[in-house]
Amino acid sequence: MNDREIVCPNLDAALETWRGAGFRLDSIYPADDPHTAVLTREGEQVRLTSRPDASRPTSRLPPFQPGFLLARGDSSESAGRAGMLYRDLIPGRSGGRYIASLISIPNGGPVADWVHFHRIALQLIYVRSGWVRVVYENQGEPFVMRAGDLVLQPPQIRHRVLESSAGLEVVELGCPALHETLADHEMVLPNAINAERTFGGQRFLHHVAARTPWTNFHGGEARETGICDATGGLAEVRTIRGSQIDFPMHHGELVFGFVLDGSALLDFEDGFELCASDAFVIPPGASWNICDGSDDFRLLHVTSAQLG
């Protein structure tokens, strides 16, 4: 296949031009601030990029770099793929190991998405507010996710975002931080149901908050999601509420929190006041807890094991 790279000052404008010339989009990255895309037409391949010196995705996971991080909810957004807005929840990306984003769609309606997949080690989507209709490979008809719902997107599962409410917000977390969105031009979704299929050793999971009871969790309450079983122990995810939660020490890699609603005190080092939309990362092996949680305090809590 003939291959050439074209440096362009504006990737969106270049994409429009080349797609208008009959090229199809095969891949684009990164999702939160796209600067590079690969397009093909009849044996010809073009790599468009506005950042020719930027790192390219690889199959190797970057080394995990632990450390404390607090990302306040008033940080800026960037324009991502398919008309979505992204806010970085893990600046520094733990050395490139993890990415977490608050993704929003302000206006709602049909989403300019296509059937695609990702070569990742871990990826999950949690709905903070609004609703979104999605469809996944071998999982049946499209379904709607609402606030508190979550999906585990195992490696390379094909999927597509179809439409959303105005003001949709989701938290997306993935490993590694830099990965491609790759189009599958042949697959049509929905396709045949195969709910027991695994992808890269993981099983698709759709957690529905309204069907999940609150259970005791270290002084507070949690809605467990089943992510641990679906990932073979790679991660755990839960929604937590309460005024005082004493978190057990975690010895894996990521310890991530995102304040869905309300306020609280993060008891770590000198203490930090938390408000809605704040995110934090705690180093593994560190002691921490939540104090003075407001009546409406809700926390998305994610931990991961030591990944290969």
TrEMBL record:
Residues covered by the Cupin type-2 domain: 105-161
InterPro entries reported in the protein's UniProt record: Cupin_2, RmlC-like_jellyroll, RmlC_Cupin_sf
Any Pfam family hit: Cupin_2
Protein's recorded name: Cupin
Species of origin: Sphingomonas sediminicola
Classification of source organism: Bacteria, Pseudomonadati, Pseudomonadota, Alphaproteobacteria, Sphingomonadales
